[in-house]
Design goal:
- The complex is a heterodimer of chains A (129) and B (258).
- Chain A has one domain: Immunoglobulins (Immunoglobulin-like, Sandwich).
- In chain A, 4% of the residues lie in helices and 45% in strands.
- With 129 residues, chain A is mainly beta.
- The termini of chain A are far apart.
- Chain A has one helix at 122-126, and strands at 4-7, 11-13, 17-24, 46-53, 56-62, 72-78, 83-91, 95-106.
- Chain A has 1 helix and 8 strands, in the order E-E-E-E-E-E-E-E-H.
- In chain B, strands 6-5-7 form a 3-stranded mixed β-sheet. A two-stranded antiparallel ribbon of chain B has the order 1-2.
- Chain B is mainly α and 258 residues long.
- Chain B has a single domain (25-258), classed as Orthogonal Bundle (Cytochrome Bc1 Complex, Chain D, domain 2).
- The chains are: A mainly beta (129), B mainly alpha (258).
- The interface between A and B is medium-sized, with 16 and 14 residues.
């Protein structure tokens, strides 16, 4: 049963660098291990991870045998326009999973997607007198 | 007479070194506090915590109809988010029919065989871990609260006896590490206090989610003791003792540990 957890900010300002997190359930069997009887366990890994932003590829990673199970990939891109980020993992034995998320991109003066820290009061900003 | 007194004092001294008192309540800490910053961050962020993958799977299994009864967990128990709150914090809990405490995994299997009329899931199988993680997730942040009464007291005592009993080729008791030397390190890794606050949890070494019993069997193998099989009453007694020892500490399921 494949399942993935992705974290894409739902809103961003145009030109802002956004962080994307992608976690997927996968055994990442190396192909180098053997059973107790000496039989080689066939390789079963994710080969490629690709992220497209409104159809344009913005991030690609090749995965290899040394990568741990349930790979967690964090990367960043620039928020250019509202639309869809599609994340896809493909690998051995026909493994293929695609997850997507939508993002709303507004003008630089729009409300940020994360609450900004409130201004410190005069007393704390200036320190004790 | 004088020799007798010396001998008695000497014996008392040895006993005191071997079996120091349990960790005072104010000094109790979760394994979380022994972890590095990166591992703590991994546990704290639900989109970075690999244990959440099992929780997601468990949610799907919760709603799946199965067995001769054609019933899903949700058909009896409803919304797990509301109705499974606190359940994991109370396990192992006493089962009147079987006249012994059951761990959460076994409780789920009892439900499967009795109510759903489906075959029980194997211990450490992905499905059982997923369901257990999903149920235990609903107790995250709640204090551990196992019931100790006249029915569970003998099992708690048995678990405590196992914890303090020197056993195996190394003639080692759990307490010698986890009560007496938790401030020290073993092969470079911190010896923790053995408070089971986050099970089932994702262990980076396993690259998988595992139960408390799997972890106990790990330790027991390291002590070179003839191990107990998964589901053995000795392991459930130990689970009960350890949960009682961690009473009132907050559950973190699904925790991440190195």
């Amino acid at each position: 049963m494949a399942s993935a957890l992705i974290n894409v900010p739902s809103r961003a300002k145009r030109g802002e660098v956004i962080e994307i997190k992608a976690l997927i359930s996968h055994p990442m069997e190396t192909g180098y291990r053997r059973t107790q009887l000496g039989v080689r366990i066939p390789r079963d890994i994710i080969r490629v991870f690709v992220c497209t932003y409104n159809g344009t590829e913005v991030f690609r990673a090749e995965l290899h045998s040394a990568i741990a199970a349930n790979p967690f990939i964090v990367f960043s891109t620039v928020a250019t326009e509202s639309g869809t980020l599609a994340l896809s993992w493909t690998g051995d034995n026909g493994f293929s999973v695609t997850e997507s998320a939508t993002i709303i991109v507004g003008d630089p003066d729009m409300a940020p997607h994360t609450p900004q820290r409130s201004e410190p009061s005069r007393e704390t900003r200036d320190g004790p007198r | 007479m004088k020799r007798w007194v010396c001998a008695a004092v000497g014996t008392a001294g040895i006993v005191a070194t071997a079996f120091a008192a349990e960790i005072p309540r104010a000094e109790r800490r979760s394994g979380y506090d022994f972890m590095g910053r990166e591992t703590r961050a991994m546990q704290d962020d639900d989109t970075a915590n690999p244990g959440m993958l099992w929780v997601l799977e468990g949610e799907a299994l919760w709603n799946r109809k199965l067995g001769a009864a054609g019933r899903a967990c949700a058909d009896c128990h409803g919304d797990a988010r509301a109705n499974m709150k606190g359940v994991a914090a109370r396990h192992p809990s006493f089962d009147a029919v079987r006249a012994r405490p059951l761990g959460l995994e076994e409780r789920i299997n009892v439900c499967r065989t009795d109510r759903q009329q489906a075959p029980p899931l194997a211990y450490e199988s992905r499905e059982l871990l997923a369901l257990t993680a999903y149920v235990a997730r609903q107790s995250r942040g709640l204090p551990i609260d196992v019931t100790i009464d006249e029915r569970t007291q003998p099992f708690l005592d048995a678990g405590r006896a196992t914890f303090f009993r020197r056993q195996g080729q190394l003639n080692f008791a759990c307490a010698q590490c986890h009560d007496d030397n938790w401030k020290e390190k073993l092969a470079g890794a911190p010896i923790t206090q053995a408070h089971p606050t986050g099970y089932p949890l994702y262990r980076l070494e396993w690259q998988n989610v595992g139960s408390l019993q799997r972890r106990l069997r790990n330790c027991i193998t390291g002590m070179r003791v003839d191990n107990y099989p998964l589901g053995a009453p000795e392991l459930v007694d130990l689970e009960l003792y350890l949960m009682w020892r961690a009473r009132d500490m907050k559950l973190e399921t699904p925790a991440v540990r190195p």
